[in-house]
Amino acid sequence: MAEVLVLVDHVDGEVKKVTTELLTAARALGEPSAVVVGAPGTAGKAKETLASYGAAKVYAAESDDVVSYHVAPKVDVLAALAEKTSPAAVLVAATPEGKEVSARLALRTGSGLLVDAVGVEGDGTVEQSIFGGGFTVKSQSTKGAPVISVRPGSVDAEQAQGAAAEESVDVPAVDAAKAAKVTGVEPVVGGDRPELTEASVVVSGGRGVGSSEQFSVVEGLADALGAAVGASRAAVDSGYYPAQFQVGQTGKTVSPQLYIALGISGAIQHRAGMQTSKTIVAVNKDPEAPIFEIADYGIVGDLFQVAPQLQEEVAKR
Ligand code: FAD
């Protein structure tokens, strides 16, 4: 069975949820090989999780130098492995970093690039949600081993035991003059909450929240649910919440099990970032708000009454 290379997303060897989703998707295409790029010892830490989601092999590309770069070493390692293994496909998370890795890799290997897939089929066909979620299209690459970036949260991760046989691979020296170097890492606010693109539940607030102080209503419900907090662009532009939490066309794309929109009208640019959520709940005082067109459950009401009641009910369970 052909190998499918899966770039592992991790923080110091702790495997992110999206990687378990990629390994699950990869199993439809062939035999998943996890590619770990990190400091020495990273693959060892990641191995158990990778094995439990079906990784047959774990390629360990480890050096102290790679942690200084987000993109360049990953592209170099994947390009070298793609040449060596002739994989059926290469799967990368459709995160900002993953999208850059996938585009550079496709250019390097001369392969077709399929971006932001929300589903992967056994024959290499991928499903994509386009025009703000208004259409679903199916695409196939016609050249080389396709490089596929998969939207976090769009595939349900399923466990399957793999051998996770570790193989050390060389990390090509990074040409520092050509690569963007990481100069500092700072923790973000809301650091105790799950990461927005990884969370199974997201509670987002819009302009209807009214102020940065009143965003505590959104945070309260999010914390009761163990959720990440998101915001519409209007909320971000009004200074209610920091820009890194913006959901939508010019923000982050999320696909959680549950998305709760509080005081968000549901403009197409917001929908583009959350429409593929599995269940959508909207709270809005305007019964005509477009968000209700895509909501599975809609509550016409004042978010300042509804959200605390929801929080109270969740806390009881
Ligand atoms: P509004 O549209 O003002 O809606 C506020 C809602 O809150 C209303 O429906 C109102 O009825 C409701 N409300 C008010 N008070 C209450 C209350 N007490 N209880 C319950 N409901 C209440 N937007 C994004 O979100 N993300 C993007 O990435 C994005 N990118 C964009 C890119 C471009 C190029 C452009 C042109 C626009 C983009 N936008 C984006 C902006 C988008 O068009 C909308 O302006 C924005 O999504 C509106 O945000 P909102 O729903 O919070 O605000």
TrEMBL record:
<comment type="subunit">
    <text>Heterodimer of an alpha and a beta subunit.</text>
</comment>
<keyword id="KW-0285">Flavoprotein</keyword>
<comment type="function">
    <text>The electron transfer flavoprotein serves as a specific electron acceptor for other dehydrogenases. It transfers the electrons to the main respiratory chain via ETF-ubiquinone oxidoreductase (ETF dehydrogenase).</text>
</comment>
<dbReference type="InterPro" id="IPR014730">
    <property type="entry name" value="ETF_a/b_N"/>
</dbReference>
<dbReference type="InterPro" id="IPR029035">
    <property type="entry name" value="DHS-like_NAD/FAD-binding_dom"/>
</dbReference>
<keyword id="KW-0249">Electron transport</keyword>
<dbReference type="InterPro" id="IPR001308">
    <property type="entry name" value="ETF_a/FixB"/>
</dbReference>
<keyword id="KW-0813">Transport</keyword>
<dbReference type="InterPro" id="IPR018206">
    <property type="entry name" value="ETF_asu_C_CS"/>
</dbReference>
<dbReference type="InterPro" id="IPR014729">
    <property type="entry name" value="Rossmann-like_a/b/a_fold"/>
</dbReference>
<dbReference type="Pfam" id="PF01012">
    <property type="entry name" value="ETF"/>
</dbReference>
<feature type="domain" description="Electron transfer flavoprotein alpha/beta-subunit N-terminal">
    <location>
        <begin position="4"/>
        <end position="187"/>
    </location>
</feature>
<dbReference type="InterPro" id="IPR033947">
    <property type="entry name" value="ETF_alpha_N"/>
</dbReference>
<dbReference type="InterPro" id="IPR014731">
    <property type="entry name" value="ETF_asu_C"/>
</dbReference>
<keyword id="KW-0274">FAD</keyword>
<dbReference type="Pfam" id="PF00766">
    <property type="entry name" value="ETF_alpha"/>
</dbReference>
<protein>
    <submittedName>
        <fullName>Electron transfer flavoprotein subunit alpha/FixB family protein</fullName>
    </submittedName>
</protein>
<comment type="similarity">
    <text>Belongs to the ETF alpha-subunit/FixB family.</text>
</comment>
